[in-house]
Target: Pyridoxal-phosphate dependent enzyme
Amino acid sequence: MQQPRRKSQGQGGASRRVVKNALEIGGIVPGETTVIEKTGGNFGFGLALACAEIGVSVELVVGLSFSPVKRQCLEFFGAKLIGIDMLKKGAAPREVILRYLVNAESMGKRYFYTDQFNNIGSLEAHLEETGPELSRQLAVGFPHVKRLSFVACAGTGASLTGIARSLRASGFQIDVVLVEPEGCDSSTGKFCDHPFEGMSVGVSPPFLDWTHINQTQWVRFSDVVKTQRRISVERGFFVGNTSAACLHVAMQMRNHLAADHKVLTIVYDHGLWYLNTIFADPTLTLRAD
Ligand SMILES: Cc1ncc(COP(=O)(O)O)c(C=O)c1O
Model:
């Protein structure tokens, strides 16, 4: 018997929703439109897959500092990486997007810019899909749980806000801990370079509802890597850098909780993408200690 196709959730669900919304309003017309976006993260993977399904081309501007394996994999999934020459000359990804949009006609293209930092579709997807999916899993796995400490990070803030709002609407008492790299503070617009691709990305997260945030915890990469290795060894999950950052904080909070209280966090992706950041950092001790 043929199995029903499983629709991906989380970030994949977010891009899928954005594509679906654009199809409905005629912004994307298969056979005519090319989707364009600046991303090297999960949103880009979701776009590549959602668009491949409906035969729509995708062109992505991926910052040069993004994981090389991710870049290759995006191409493997059918996305075309554009603007590399401009990026090499120092242009910002948004400048590349602008150049392509302005010159679309002369290139014979009809672009649809999904604009993830201003597209409400991601927030809708996390509110209506990821959040309810988590509530269902919690109801089955931990029916006695009423209180949640939700540990998450923010790029656009769509996943954190959508999930937090949905869980609260489902009746959970929830407090939210925002995780940020040491040296960054999204609340004041202070950002720095760091190896946690996907969080604290240099702009204030547009969908982050600060009324949900009860506290911020700052993490150091060298500490996070120890947790990353520990989870791999003890649990068999080699999680990505932002996931490990959230798990690092979540694991410090999980002791001494009441019976109806759990810590919840998100595993955004896996660690193989980021071996370059882990092995390239001379300050890290890569032996187990
Ligand atoms: C690896 C990773 N972590 C965290 C995030 C943050 O997600 P959001 O944009 O929903 O805040 C992203 C976003 O794509 C990501 O790719």
